[in-house]
Amino acid sequence: MSPYIFGVILPLLVTLIVRNKNSPKRRGVPVETGGEPGLTIRNRRFESPVQSAWEGVTTLAELFEEACKTHAEGLFLGTRVILARELESGNDGRSFEKLHLGEYSWLSYDTVFDVVSGFASGLAFLGHAREERAAIFADTRQEWFMALQVLLLPS
């Protein structure tokens, strides 16, 4: 074998062997979600699974419900009314909209939970099933957030 071929092939082989040795092993736990087998993978730097602040809370819907129960009277979603709009142009010729906003109007956790529960009941009454798709087409507002929470509910 020519020394040139040996000088080219040997570094490639060493690189491939070292790369495969240093690749981190995937730490996964086999799970079955929704009837389909899968693998749950967590960050390899942490040996234990992620823990929840509340015992038994494992989904976003459960987290939302628990937060609403715990902080029922607390302020949750706040919005401000647009009092005036001005169109201003900058030195570079671009124009931008300047808004003058009023004071915040707040909804409590309890109020938001009641709205979400009512909205979910309305969807169920209209015949929307659990596995059916739904779309939210709205500006980023508190109503959008509440509609999202409805769709995250288990039933």
UniProtKB/TrEMBL annotation:
Keywords: Signal. SUPFAM superfamilies: Acetyl-CoA synthetase-like. It comes from the Eukaryota. Residues 1-19 form the signal peptide. This is Uncharacterized protein. It comes from Sphenostylis stenocarpa.
